[in-house]
Amino acid sequence: MSDLAKTPEKKPSGKSSQNPAGKPSGESTAPGADAAAGPAAPAVDPRLLVREEGFKGYLTEFGRKVRGGELGSLPVVVGLIVIAIVFQLQNSNFLSASSLANIAVYSSGMGIMAVGIVFVLLLGEIDLSVGSVAGVGAAIWAVLQVSNGWNGWLAIGVALLSGLALGLLHGFFFAKIGVPAFVVTLAGFLGWSGLQIWLMGKEGSINTPTGSVVENLTNFYFEDKFAAYGLAVVAIVLYALSMFLDSKRRRAAALPARPTSEIALRTVVVAVLCLVVAYFLNEPVGARGLPLALVLFLAVLLIADFVARRTTFGRQVFAVGGNAEAARRAGISVDRIRITVFGISGLLAAFGGLFLASLSGGATKSLGANNTLMLVIAAAVIGGTSLFGGRGKVWSALLGMIVIQAIQQGLNMLGMASEIQYMITGAVLLAAVVIDSLSRRTQKSAGRA
């Protein structure tokens, strides 16, 4: 530093003090800066620079994110491609219309349950009760409609509300009483399993009525080709419109926004994916059309994604999961968020239980048991939701469940035993958690955690 900077001139009283560079003392001057230099240029958002560089800028930014540990959905997408190639080489029917439809249908029930788990994991917590809550929901529906002759829709509504109530109860004990979520939901897992057995009584199982709403959840297909293609077109239009409106709002607020060329490219990619799926559901030999189960699963995903990304509640969930104390000091009702999230998990668990009953042909004393809980949690984690809270996407439930069901479908087609399937699924789950841990470590070392 120069001598002049070390011994500033004495300023007359009554006038604003000046630093050696001739600037008001309230303004900072970079060390070693030339006194004759002009005012510093305003900071530019790096995202604007990336977009000004075009696709080269995006490629550079993608590489920077990967090196910094921000992998997003990249690992699971690569994993799906590898799974498809390996099993298709082993069995040419793996990518057939009937096989893909089976993956979609069998992914729906537990995938819906996994959406609820995603919300819980965003809080940095865990819900071990989803399997037993699913069983209770299916049992309540079966007892009310089949055993007591209730209207099917009314029985379904009571079953869903029961799942919501059980989830809210878990959240109350966790948020208000202070019992760890692990303990609360473990107690729920045991207690609600007993309630499920008691509700089923001596029957042991109650078959799904033919033509009932629950039976149609996984057995109904829209055979008209317009349904699949129409849904694809609607999805494409909504995706493009949402990006266009978001870009328009950001420009109006003088924030970085996607250029029209990027919106067009993203829309084309999504259009290709949607139309290819619609083609495989409609055209090949053995195709049955669009499964109702897939439509309902996608509807749940869209609603949950909107809540998580576009509402105040969703932003508060991420805030609480990132740092609960900071969220509390910011005025967020942490207890309310926690209770509500566990209520969502219970509601979606009961809904998923109805899908499981549809697939198995009825409600049983063991519905939701065995490996249901593990597969649901594994789907959320494999799809990219962090176990440490505050990071993840609702769509990870779809990606993770497709990975699990694709593995099971492929191994079934190869005649592998169930124990082999469990070991491979466990290895995939471990790999996902390892990737998540390494990603967080890389982000911390890069100063981006």
What would you note in describing this structure?
- The protein has 449 residues and is mainly α.
- It has a domain at 97-220 and 320-430.
- The protein has helices at 3-6, 46-52, 55-67, 74-90, 97-122, 130-147, 152-177, 181-200, 213-219, 225-252, 260-282, 292-310, 312-322, 324-329, 334-360, 372-382, 396-413, 418-445, and strands at 205-207, 221-222, 290-291, 362-364.
- The chain has a two-stranded antiparallel ribbon with strand order 1-4. The protein has a two-stranded antiparallel ribbon with strand order 2-3.
- Helix 16 runs parallel beside helix 18 (418-445).
- The two termini are 35 Å apart.
Q: Helical element count?
A: 18
Kindly state the mean pLDDT as a whole number? 83
SSE pattern: HHHHHHHHEHEHHEHHHHEHHH
Structural class: mainly alpha
Spatial arrangement of strands, main beta sheet: 1-4
Query: In terms of per-residue confidence, which ranges show pLDDT below 50 for 5 or more consecutive residues?
Result: 1-37, 40-45
Indicate the proportion of strand residues. under 5%
Radius of gyration: 27 Å
Helix content: 55-70%
Number of strands: 4
Q: Which term fits the overall shape? A: globular
Distance between the termini: 35 Å
Report the major sheet. Answer: 2 strands, antiparallel
Summarize the SSE layout with pairings.
Layout: H1 3-6, H2 46-52, H3 55-67, H4 74-90, H5 97-122, H6 130-147, H7 152-177, H8 181-200, E1 205-207, H9 213-219, E2 221-222, H10 225-252, H11 260-282, E3 290-291, H12 292-310, H13 312-322, H14 324-329, H15 334-360, E4 362-364, H16 372-382, H17 396-413, H18 418-445
Antiparallel strand pairs: 1-4, 2-3
Helix pairs in contact: 2-3, 4-17, 5-12, 5-15, 5-16, 5-17, 6-7, 6-8, 6-15, 7-8, 7-15, 9-15, 10-11, 12-13, 13-15, 16-17, 16-18, 17-18
